[in-house]
Amino acid sequence: MLFLNNVNRLSLIKTNATKVALVFIYTLGALALFAWNDAVDWGLGLVLAAGTSVGAWWSSRWSVDQGEGVIKVAMVVMVTAMSIKLWFF
C-alpha cells in the first residue's frame, strides 16, 4: 500500500481497491488448494465470508464518504495498536 500510494501516487481509495483485488486473487488460489486437500470447513467458511463481505461493503462506503484524512488517521491508529500488541503481548 505504501508503494502504490507514494510511488504511483494513487489515492488511498484506489490503493485499497487494488489491494482488495490482489487479496481476492490469491485467496481463490488458497481456497482451491485447501479444498483440493479437503481441509475446508464450508459452514464456518461461509459464515466468515458473509461477515467479511458485509464488513467490506460497509467500510468501503464509509471510507468513500469520509475521505482520505479519516482513512490515514484510522491506518495510523491500527498500525500503532498492532505494533504494540506484537511487541508487548
- The poorly predicted ranges are none
Alpha-carbon Rg, integer: 16 Å
The domain tally reads 1
SS field, number of helical segments: 4
Major beta-sheet overview: none
Q: What is the overall shape?
A: globular
Number of strands: 0
Report on this model:
With 89 residues, this protein is mostly helical. It has one domain. The protein is 87% helix and 0% strand. The protein contains four helices and no strands. The model has no long low-confidence stretch (mean pLDDT 86).
Secondary structure: elements and pairs:
Elements: H1 2-7, H2 12-36, H3 42-66, H4 68-88
In brief, what are we looking at here?
By secondary structure, the chain is an all-alpha fold. The chain has four helices and no strands.
Key terms:
mainly alpha, globular, 89 residues, single chain
